[in-house]
Amino acid sequence: MAAAKYKAAIIGTGRMGGLIEDEQPYSNAYTKPYSHYMAYTVTPETEVVAVANRGAPRLERYLKRFPVENSYLDYREMILKEKPDIVSVTTPSFARAEPIIFAAENGVKGIYAEKGLCASLEEADRITAAVKANNVAFNWGASRRHHSAYVQMAESIAAGDIGEPKFVVCYQFTDLIKHHPHTLDTASMLIGDPKATWVEGRLVEPDSERDNSVGRMGPRDPKTNERVGKLSSPVYDPDGHRFVPPEGQEIADPMVDFFRVGYENAVEGMFIPAGGGWSIEVRGTEGHAYAWEHQGVYRIRKGAGQRPTVEEREITPTGYSPTVNIVRDIVNELDTGERTKGNIDVTMQIVEPEYAIAYSSLADGKRVSIPVEDRALHIPGG
Length: 382
Description:
- About 25% of the residues lie in helices and about 25% in strands.
- The protein is of the alpha/beta class.
- A hairpin with an 8-residue loop joins strand 15 (about 295-300) and strand 16 (about 310-315).
């Protein structure tokens, strides 16, 4: 069998690195493969040649599950020795900036980084500089941008099927750094990726009515992958200008209350902290497009109110899973020079409003303009 065209390496041997394949409940052909390892495995142009993880127990567990010949406890050593073409960075976001920058500055041609991107806007600026200076093909793990149904929705909206978009509304109660990149990125791509110009919003305060620390599951045991304890709400430290993890933990990722985002095309995004599953809709002058019930229903509806007729059609996802599409998108840039759909400029258009939510909350919910001047606020997300 001929060798794959591009050598891939994975930094972080946890869930998205591969282990999520054994727990992910979705089993339809479009959703799987879900992990980075399996996405590389089913992409003919790529082959995983090495993996790295900072802790031995999880690395050992990973190697028992996946047949990877070369493993390292130091990602720097792996990159310098194996010289991979593509590197996946699936570490927690608080430990993601340095591997991305090191890979970009040491010969890696393509980088697939999970979301959130990093722990501060200052780190995001350094990542951007390294990726651009070294002409790296970059994608990040905001997967709905690469999900066939959402792509079809975006194309329909761009074609004018719901008239002129006015509002995008998302229903999801989740944390700021690890999971809200999904909501922000999907909202942005559905309305054509305009730049966000302002944000107003609040984070959930510890011990407030919305604080769900009691039910928020804690980190996973590296040997068993089982949840350990609860993940308490982080506290902001004004002296250190940072969110502080609960004692004995590394993650300080605050939950998000209601927030709004204003875009340069005059569309407004409203993000509602409603639990019970992911839903998003775009309201236009002649109808709306929506994805409801955690990716279970996708429809375009034209005509409403007093109109005599209403046209509605359902969208069905086709092709590859989002994770595979992300890998194929990187391969395409390496082959053709065409930039990825989640390139670093697109990514930064999401990272800016993401952090602006925290800045607005610290300013008692006042409107914050984008780009944010202060780049130092540190939020160590998962």
